[in-house]
Amino acid sequence: MLRKLYDWVMNLARSRHAPAALAAVSFAESSFFPVPPDVMLGPMVLANRDRAFVYAGICTVASVVGGLLGYAIGMFLEPVGQFILSLFGHPEGKAEFQHWFDQWGAWVILFKGMTPIPYKLVTITAGFAHFDLFMFVWLSAVTRGIRFFAVAGILKYFGPAMLEEFERRMGLYSVLLLALLVGGFVAIKVFL
Q: Which residues of the chain register pLDDT less than 50?
């Protein structure tokens, strides 16, 4: 079953609809959707390494535009923003993140934008905090660009060897990936 899912993702990554799907996932992830765009970006770069930086650019632009929706949710639709934060394990997220923005300001966006922490937490709470919109867009473009272009570059240059290794030991790496995901969510709940 794992092999069928893997083949399906790789075929989707090669399809003509992949860039549009990547943009949609990147946009939605920055405001409300739980799945990060890396799950599409990685297979797309591995399927077509010559377009790696085009895909990273699509991710970056769509993520920043989606971040504007997250910002608007936080600024104008506070109950919706609170609901989204509570879905991601932060029912008191507004106060918590407001404190972070008060204390660290731009560093919150720069640091969290490059990590696997769901970016919607940053975008919505930046809206709650009424963080400067121009600065928010600029910092989002920088931090998301660094993240997506780094992923694309690593996969462009080292991806074939990594892909061969992954295909050889797919079961082991799938279990490790699942453990990292679960551990990440546990860490987010405990430390954030």
A: none
